[in-house]
Amino acid sequence: MALRGKDSVGVVFWVVVVVVLCAATAFHGCSAALFKKKSSGSGIGGGSSVVFKLRGNVYPVGYYYAEVYIGNPPKPYYLDIDSGSDLTWLQCDAPCVSCPQVPHPLYKLTRNALVVCTETMCKSLHSPPAYRCDKPTDQCDYEVEYADNGSSLGILVRDIVPIRYSNGTVLGPRLAFGCGYDQHVSKGDVSPTDGVLGLGNGKSTIASQLRSLGLIQNVIGHCMSARGGGYLFFGNELVPSSGIVWSPLSPTTIDKHYSPGPAELFYGRQSTGVKSLPVIFDSGSSYTYFNRQAYQVFLSLVKKGLAGKPLNVAADKTLSICWKGAKPFRSVLDVKQYFTPVTLSFANKKSQLEIPPENYLIISSLGNVCLGILNGTEIGLENMNLIGDISLQNQLVIYDNEKQRIGWIRADCSRLPKSGTISL
Ligand SMILES: *[C@@H]1O[C@H](CO)[C@@H](O)[C@H](O)[C@H]1NC(C)=O
Ligand SMILES: *[C@@H]1O[C@H](CO)[C@@H](O)[C@H](O)[C@H]1NC(C)=O
Ligand SMILES: *[C@@H]1O[C@H](CO)[C@@H](O)[C@H](O)[C@H]1NC(C)=O
After folding, report:
1. Could you identify the atom of ligand 1 that is nearest to the CA of residue 40?
2. Most buried among 80, 94, 283, 291, by the most CB within 10 A?
3. CATH of the domain at 372
4. How many domains does one find in the chain?
5. How many angstroms separate the alpha carbon of residue 379 from the centre of ligand 3?
């Protein structure tokens, strides 16, 4: 299905728009105004950042999402944050073929300019292979498919995205994103979100576009609280000056994914003998996935560790493997003593990501404890290992696309960073 027709672009007074927006919301898009004014550093977007509050959790919601205002008048949309993909898109009535019911209005296509196929934005999204562009006025179609087999099909459009920067300035640049008119969510899933906020390292992300406009550095951070919620930022201002474990992004980065290179797997202090694991950080995945080999080894070590412990396998379909105790558990803290931390070690132990039990276990609605590290080979990830939300909780994770590195530090993600520093 093709969607044709050029929309006229209205003259838009974004300043007015933004004032209304910020008055109407206590936090979103305006939160950065609470930050102390800080003198801008030198260079592009020196000291500027943008902060979004996150909602959601790993279980039962299964998503962390940001509320982003788009359009004129601006409307709020809930966008699933996904460091595993680039394109930002929202459900759009163009007309929408299979949009799931969401609490928000569908994005209206009218009065928004189409991105044409000759634009860099279109080319970067499609390369390789090169996108067929017959006439320079042709629309730019897109199709994204995710690892869970969810997908979105639509066209690229450009509209105002009003944002307040940490220095207090409010700007509403016109940014490109996808207007999705044919969505499929993976089976049995009801998405609470209106679309996806792509945080990948390609040229088509919102952060990369803001960078091209000279507004921020292309640095993205997210902090997902284990209690739900958290925050997301673009720009380098909120990056703590010390304590971060940095790892260079792998030059062989699989497609456009954030990978600190191959990892060795440790269980407790013990090496498992599993090495050279290709790992990517993926905030778009609720759970962590190990490949067949790593999963097998991990699972047998977990089972061994549970021998003689008061846990029994439960008939609970929440995740692949769940255990029940003498009485229902209320928190992961009730059971964490029966499990051992897992560590992924990158670049010869120069940087390590510790995954304590609370970062790989959930308590199901039935009060059982379930393993949140799953078998990736089973869902077609082949050799790939994904570090998902469950293992990124209570970590500030920073994707520094300027310096081609990825960093992480334990943090209390339920507290917003103040005055440019993260309170731990
Ligand atoms: C604040 O930051 C924005 C984005 O980087 C920049 O465009 C603007 O000029 C800055 N304003 C001031 C007053 O420094
Ligand atoms: C993981 O999935 C693969 C593919 O379905 C399967 O062959 C393997 O046995 C699974 N591993 C475990 C430990 O269940
Ligand atoms: C996605 O589809 C592929 C191929 O049909 C299948 O092997 C895989 O299990 C599916 N993944 C999920 C998460 O359903």
Report:
1. 14
2. 283
3. 2.40.70.10
4. 2
5. 5
